[in-house]
Amino acid sequence: MGIELHNHHHKGVSGGWGVAAKPCDTCKAAASAVFCRVDSAFLCLNCDARIHCVNKHARVWMCEVCEQAPAAVTCKADAAALCVTCDNDIHSANPLARRHERNPVEPLFDSADSIVKSSALNLAPNENGSSEFSGACQQHEEGGVDSGAWLMTPSSKLSLESTNEMKSGELFFSEMDPFLDFEYTNSYPNHSAGMDSVVPVQTSKPPQIQVMNNENCFDIDFCRSKLTSFSYQTQSLSQSVSSSDVGVVPDGKSMSDISYPFGRNIAGTDPNVPVSGTSTNQATQLCGLDREARVLRYREKRKNRKFEKTIRYHSRKAYAETRPRIKGRFAKRTEVDSEVGRLYVSPAAFMADNQYGVVPTF
DNA sequence: CGATATTAGTGAGCCACATAGAGGG
DNA sequence: ATCCCTCTATGTGGCTCACTAATAT
């Protein structure tokens, strides 16, 4: 059941820009959630649980963007696990993206399904009717240290979002790229540094991070600790929205977990997983094609967004780079300069070397 | 703790000239 | 309709300077 919905959303929204998520190599029906390195197989949660209940091979989550390849890194700013291709694609788009802090993804050895479920369990309301997460949130808001929200797994992120929505009714815009679309007023400790908050300074090591080996690889605890240690200031989110995109994706009725397919299982779609309340179910049902289209449009827009200077005419760039300057300003080219310039580098040759469109002028 | 000085960061503007594109013949 | 020519606006990178913010005294 959960897998079916999972798959549905893979194809509809998060499934790699219209491309269906990679199917499970075993059942061929559900979308793969993890990749087993030992077996070289893509597995859905159910098959993974069945196969790896005994043989606990090292597996990794699927890339959250393309869902076609195993994740290779986790991006702190995007709060996502990405494959090598998507990582290169996304984080080479602009200087801001390049500054995103990424860490090698660490394999999981427990059943992915159990991890998902344990995440949900940790989100179950306690006696006070609030989840552990909300407590962590509260602690954070009371002066706690940002404990690395970016380290959440897809499932835990979703759980967090849905729980948060259930609790406060506020939107949780995890889908948004916070550093590009919002003005966070205080979401991160070092926000005063402006865009430098892209790579937040960690004054204290997040509890869910464990140094695994001498290769500076972090063990991202995909199980439970991330949920309880995670903290986020939803208030700052809801109050600091400034982008026109904001009104596009989260509609206040549905979950904002489109990019976190694994989490759907715990969002009320898996009968085996306890979910606090029915609002998430209702919210899921309210996910319409319109919203999916909006989300898709947003993600495409975000993916293609570039903040660096766009060179429209490479030929002009080539000329500008070869032109003589005086204190940075373009200077008149003397005959000597012209000769030197031609001998030194011909813009046409430069463009030809760089495979630009050449407009011969010499 | 407030005032002043210093440092750091940011963005607009300038320059010459090849070229894209519009317009006319 | 097509081609050719002329003219104009555009875009290009490195540097300076003015301004603001942050930090130090």
From TrEMBL:
Source species, domain of life: Eukaryota
The protein's name in its UniProt record: Uncharacterized protein
